[in-house]
Design brief:
homodimer, alpha/beta, 5-stranded mixed sheet
């Protein structure tokens, strides 16, 4: 029996991650592939109960705080965006979702939107709040690499502005769905090829379309290996993102929030540009963010 | 009964197009979806006979000249690349393919390769030869927009250099496989949105990753319509290609060889940049190229 006081949930497009939270932090965790992409509206509560059922007890209601695509219009219940500039989380703006099972009381976290240039996030706001909890007083820029990488300017505890790049989705499409897939290795890596790709698009971003096809051509006529091709593709796309986000990161304190391997690539790239980024794990950030929210919710009159 | 003297074939990844050629040019044509992507090595001869069988007569062998991916390593038979600089076609470098049916004598046309920067083409070399046949004395730049757009510098009847951009494939992937597909119309167009996209990446190519996601964000929070989103995506990607190919087209005579609608978009974009491109249809160019080759083959001792 887990003595959980509440449940933290990170519910994205492809995964559902739940953490049983006790006084000392995480006391158990479970993950499933019941992401938004695979669920209909009626499927959310059963999917959650399958994952966290063992943490529940009859006659007792556990608070559940959930961030991510679960709060989108196509999710369990829409949690309308809040507009920046604003603090990343606001305990007064949670959306309660009715459940059949009275052992859980679910609240969804709104994403953030920016009017001009138009942009949106869902889930990252919680990681941002976590980063601010883990780095009190941080003013600067947060980089959240991923399918839709975010660059976020934070100051005095607020999100001032942000910009999203489709870097990770482009990598997935190009490496697995395009003509380049014939020359891409699933395994293996080549650091020099990554650095070469990075440098090409950082200095000549307009060449991206040609440099992509060159991966195919070099595979056909110049013996480019599949691991080098994949690493260079990654470098080309991250370099393109860094070229486009330069106004965000140049001369700013930077922290990267992400998965270990991807964060390390961004750190390597930014360091080569003279920056000194700090690294935070996405898991630590999301848990810290949900914990800060839970604390805020207990203090917010309902 | 068609009095064909020979057969011209344009055999790409997705389509097989055959033209029965008489003294006055095309006297019949047939198209199927038996492209390289759907055929095994043994399937090429039957696929061709299905399409052109009605043009054949017993006891008589018709020459068949075929360009495109049919000559790739994964095609019917490999026709090794020729290396630029060189004339786009060389009747002495055709690859004869044995057939079971003696009514056809098939020869495949080699593609072109460039060592540095590494690049390859298959099929476009025939369109280039056709363009030179249709515009005698043309020196300048040819633009062949498509899945893998080509920019080609030609001078004195030779291909001097070329560069491929993955523009069309990126458009297909992004509009039908990415998160942007939710906000893209199959029908409809918006000229102002196309022009806006074009202008954005021509002047700020490094922003492409962010401008792509903005299509999604504006669809969610700013009411961007699906036809406008599709036209702007097209403009963003063509603008990126024009930014990357500027060294090719700036101040040069330009001819565009392609499908009507796509060529018109490139022509609109280039005209807005002060260029005055001529337009040739891809079909006319490939037929003119194969005709020039047939003439050369008759003059080449075997």
């Amino acid at each position: 029996m887990i003595p959980a006081g509440w449940i933290a949930v990170d519910w994205g497009t492809t995964h559902l991650r739940a953490y049983a939270m006790g006084p000392g932090g995480v006391c158990a965790e479970e993950t499933s592939t019941d992401g938004m992409a695979t669920l209909t509206r009626d499927g959310y509560e059963p999917a959650l109960l399958r994952l966290v059922g063992a943490w529940l007890a009859p006659g007792r209601t556990l608070p559940v705080f959930a961030c991510g695509m679960v709060g989108s219009r196509q999710g369990w219940h829409e949690a309308p965006y809040r507009t920046v500039p604003c603090p990343p989380l606001d305990a007064a703006r949670l959306i309660a979702v009715p459940t059949r099972d009275s052992r859980i009381a679910v609240r969804l976290i709104p994403g953030l939107k920016q009017a001009q240039p138009a942009d949106v996030m869902r889930g990252e706001e919680t990681q941002i709040a976590g980063a601010l909890a883990l780095m009190p007083g941080f003013d600067g820029v947060l980089c959240l690499p991923g399918t839709h990488s975010k660059w976020v300017q934070v100051s005095a505890g607020e999100v001032i502005s942000f910009q999203t790049f489709m870097t990770g989705e482009l990598f997935a499409l190009l490496s697995s769905q395009s003509v380049l897939r014939h020359g891409m290795a699933a395994e293996g890596w080549d650091d020099a090829a990554f650095a070469a790709g990075l440098s090409e698009t950082l200095s000549r971003p307009e060449r991206i379309g040609a440099r992509l096809f060159a991966l195919r051509a070099e595979g056909l006529i110049a013996g480019l290996g599949a691991a080098a091709a994949k690493a260079r593709l990654s470098g080309l796309l991250i370099g393109l993102e860094l070229a486009g986000s330069r106004a965000y990161w140049l001369g700013q304190p930077i922290a990267i929030i992400g998965a270990d391997r991807l964060s390390a690539l961004y750190a390597q790239a930014l360091t080569a540009q003279g920056a000194s980024p700090r690294l935070l794990s996405a898991r630590d950030a999301v848990i810290a963010g949900l914990t800060a929210l839970r604390r805020g919710a207990m203090e917010t009159p309902r």
